[in-house]
Design brief:
mainly alpha, Sufe protein. Chain: A, two-stranded antiparallel sheet, 6 helices
């Protein structure tokens, strides 16, 4: 058995929520997300129409790939706040097994107080991004099991 055991997606989400909640003010937490989003870039060549997430008011591009049996997600958005929120989802789900990505829902919006700060339109857009991540992970899972 490997000593570098895989940390479950649920455990990673708990850790991410705990880290964000070290910042007492939910508005400041959102600001941190916007600042951190720069590390998750999608090159212009990959910002194509097939990568656009349908159901978002802002333009959001999302790409996913299977890397060593684990999902990797990258994103871009035309709004800094949306990019920060979507990058958080990419960070959360990247490195997880496809079946985990399909099964584990993001609790970060509620547990970090973001639902009170985000408009229904933004929350619907985030739901569309989550659905697209699930679709990509399903395709990865089916591709992985076919090998």
């Amino acid at each position: 058995m490997s000593t570098a055991a895989h940390v479950s997606l649920s455990a990673r989400q708990e850790s991410l929520i705990a880290d964000l909640n070290l910042i007492p003010d939910p508005h400041e937490r959102l600001s941190v997300l916007v600042c951190r989003a720069g590390s998750n870039r999608l090159p212009d060549a990959l910002k194509t129409d097939d990568a656009l997430v349908k159901g978002c008011v802002s333009r959001v591009w999302l790409r996913g790939e299977l890397d060593g049996g684990r999902c990797r997600f990258r994103c871009e958005a035309d709004s800094p706040l949306v990019k920060g929120l979507v990058a958080l989802l990419c960070e959360l789900y990247s490195g997880a097994l496809p079946d985990e990505v399909i099964a584990v829902e993001p609790e970060v919006w509620l547990r970090c107080g973001f639902m009170r700060l985000l408009s229904p339109t933004r929350l619907n857009g985030l739901s569309a991004v989550r659905n697209r991540i699930r679709e990509l992970a399903t395709a990865m899972s089916e591709g992985a099991s076919a090998e």
